[in-house]
């Protein structure tokens, strides 16, 4: 079993709505798989994406490319650890579509790496706002709702 990562939901669960923030994702019970560690990580990832979104939309916070890259790298690392843990869980339970699921994870990670390179290369925060958060959030929610539920019945509790 992979070491559990620190994934305690934080106070950021209480999102502050602002007219300027359009892409805040609300955690919903319907997103729960019923596997506690995985659900906690999913929720923590959504919260982190939301925080990134808030930071990018905030007019008072001065967002710099280095700071953004730092936040991004943290998120990227967290997501990678989460994916590996999920893949290990599927492997241990002989999930038949493990390879296809892994390919989805890897495709996402490759896409994130491209976005990161483009942010670093162009230094365009506005591009990051549109691409990074929009893509991250949409992909993640779609994946949790559409793909992850497929393995749940194979997991022995
Ligand atoms: Fe997954």
Keywords:
157 residues; mainly alpha; Four Helix Bundle (Hemerythrin (Met), subunit A); 64% helix
Structure notes:
This protein has a single domain, classed as Four Helix Bundle (Hemerythrin (Met), subunit A) (Up-down Bundle). 64% of the residues lie in helices and 0% in strands. It has helices at residues 36-57, 65-92, 98-122, 125-146, 149-152. Helix 1 (36-57) packs antiparallel against helix 2 (65-92). The radius of gyration is 16 Å and the shape is elongated. The protein binds fe (ii) ion. Fe (ii) ion is lined by residues 86, 101, 105, 143, 147-148.
SSE map:
Layout: H1 36-57, H2 65-92, H3 98-122, H4 125-146, H5 149-152
Helix pairs in contact: 1-2, 1-4, 2-3, 3-4
The chain binds fe (ii) ion.
Residues 86, 101, 105, 143, 147-148 line the site of fe (ii) ion (FE2).
CATH class category: Mainly Alpha
When the domains are counted, the total is 1
Residue-averaged pLDDT, rounded? Answer: 80
Please give the number of β-strands: 0
Bound molecules: fe (ii) ion
Number of helices: 5
Rg (CA only): 16 Å
Report the CATH architecture. Up-down Bundle
The structural class is mainly alpha
Q: How much helix is in the residues?
A: 55-70%
Give the uncertain stretches in residue-range form. Answer: 6-21
End-to-end distance, in Å?
14 Å
SSE string, helix = H, strand = E? HHHHH
Q: What is the overall silhouette?
A: elongated
The CATH topology name reads Four Helix Bundle (Hemerythrin (Met), subunit A)
Largest sheet: none
